[in-house]
Amino acid sequence: MSTSSLPKQNNKQKGFTLIELLVVVSLLATMAGIAAVAMDGYEQQAEAQLVAVEMKRIASAVYRFKEDTGYFPKEGVFPGSTNNHDLSWLFDSPVSGGVAVLPWNINTGRGWHGPYLEMGSHERISKTDCDLGIVSAADTFVGLSDTFERETESSPTECMVVLSEGDFVPRKFAGKPYEYVKNYTNADIPECTGGKDCLVLLSYGKDSSRGSGDDIVHILRVNP
Predict the structure, then answer these.
(1) Within 13 A of 141's CA, how many CA atoms are on the CB side?
(2) How large is the average pLDDT for residues 27-32?
(3) What residues contact residue 171 under an 8 Å CB cut-off, 6+ apart?
(4) Within 13 Å of residue 12, how many CA atoms lie on the same side as its CB?
(5) What are the residue boundaries of the structural domains of the chain, listed by start?
(6) Those residues with Cβ within 8 angstroms of residue 175's Cβ, 6 or more apart along the chain or in another chain
(7) What pLDDT does 156 receive?
(8) Which of 4, 97, 182, 220 is 20 to 30 A distant from 66 in Cα terms?
(9) Mean pLDDT calculated for residue range 120-134
């Protein structure tokens, strides 16, 4: 009876050395970092596109305001406001001295005929103080926040609170309210420089800082 001999076993175990493992871990960390940066870039690009769409919607409301009344907001017979973030005139009929300014005239088909945006899309915003116990309606304004998510500052004068279902609540991540600027200039925008200025809607971009290079500008009118 013949028997076949079993193959010899190789007792040497093949595996990664410590250096090889460190190289692999380093490569994986680098790839993860590149992916995170790329994803952050895509996220910012998506947010910027959403802001551009939102600004077009607001611009359409402004033009309908102009078509109905003959004036852009804060011009002509309409009272101006020192708060460029206040967009209340798109939601509520402008009032001066307790009297409605240019109310709708059914006979002429002219006048303020809003609201020009859905009522659910606005927020009553306060940036004066984050102490919810002392926030009052007089300290707030009606505005629209852009879609960039930014963590609010810890300073009591920088925190944003919004009115939600009758109560003021803080927003940990809040967009910056859009700005309505009557005399805007920007050296990078030919229409709004060289002795000319523009009426614009403005988003401060991801960094919340006006004029830092990532602002998003929607021109409503090039001023004469």
Answers:
(1) 18
(2) 72
(3) 152, 160, 161, 162
(4) 2
(5) 22-222
(6) 145, 146, 147, 148, 149, 150
(7) 47
(8) 97
(9) 62
